[in-house]
Specification:
This protein is mostly helical. The protein has helices spanning 2-24, 42-45, 60-89, 94-126.
């Protein structure tokens, strides 16, 4: 029992160390891509302007997508940890291990979708 508790605490500490840099980092590498010398590119000429409050680069659609992606990412990480806890506490039961693996796989898929949501929306809006 003590070993399981120790591994559970260690898991939460490791997840905490991973989450801190992710939640603090808000750098968008493509934010200033068309400023400066590269702004004469044909790709930069077709960008939608930031003056549209609905579909612009800082519009409502992008902001809502960003917020939803952050929430989905946090929920995915919580389910990833929950799947790990289920896997650790399954005690070798094949049903418990299978359930834990399915939870982890679903959490990873959710994390990928959350990570790709904003770039996909920004790409589609820039092509409108």
């Amino acid at each position: 029992m003590l070993r399981r508790l120790t591994s559970l605490v260690a898991s939460f500490l490791l997840v905490g160390m991973v989450l801190v840099p992710v939640t603090v980092s808000a750098y968008d590498p493509f934010d200033k891509a068309c400023d400066g010398a590269g702004s004469t590119s044909t790709a930069c000429g077709s960008r939608s302007g930031g003056d549209d409050p609905i579909a612009g680069s800082d519009g409502i659609i992008v902001n809502v997508t960003t917020i939803l992606a952050i929430i989905a990412g946090i929920v995915s990480v919580i389910f990833l940890v929950w799947g790990g806890v289920k896997y650790i506490t399954s005690g070798g039961d094949s049903g418990g291990v299978s359930s834990a693996k399915n939870t982890v796989i679903a959490a990873i898929v959710g994390l990928l979708i959350a990570a790709l949501a904003r770039p996909i929306v920004v790409f589609i809006i820039s092509k409108l």
